[in-house]
Amino acid sequence: MATLFEKIINGEMDADIVHQDSQVTAFRDIDPKAPTHILVVPNKAIATVNDIADDDELVIGHMVTVARDLARKEGIADDGFRLLMNCNEHAGQEVFHLHMHLLGGRPLGPMLAG
Predict the structure, then answer these.
(1) Does 99 qualify as catalytic in the annotation?
(2) pTM to 2 decimals?
(3) Is residue 111 in some structural domain?
(4) Annotated catalytic residue: which of 19, 62, 90, 99?
C-alpha cells in the first residue's frame, strides 16, 4: 500500500508542494512546528534511514541541497535552520517513507528536551 508521501509525490493527494524534480519532492508540513516547516522526500520509496542503499547516496545528497536552496528561498538561511531526519519509532518517525524536515523562521531552542 502506498504511503501518504507516495500519494503526494504521485499527485494523488493534495499538498502545498514547494519543489519537485525527478529525484525529490518538497512540501509544507500539515502540522508545522516552526514558521517554516517543509518536508523533503525522495521520490523513490525508502522506508527509513536504515533502508538507504549505497546507490541512494546521490538522492540523499540532493535532499540536502534542495533543503539548502529552500532555506534561502524562504529567507531563513542567514538566521539559521534545522534539518532533521527521524528513524523508526523511538525517534518519532510517523510516516515510513524517508523524509527530512526543514525547520526555521524562529529560534528553535535545544536539540532535545530533557
Answers:
(1) yes
(2) 0.95
(3) no
(4) 99
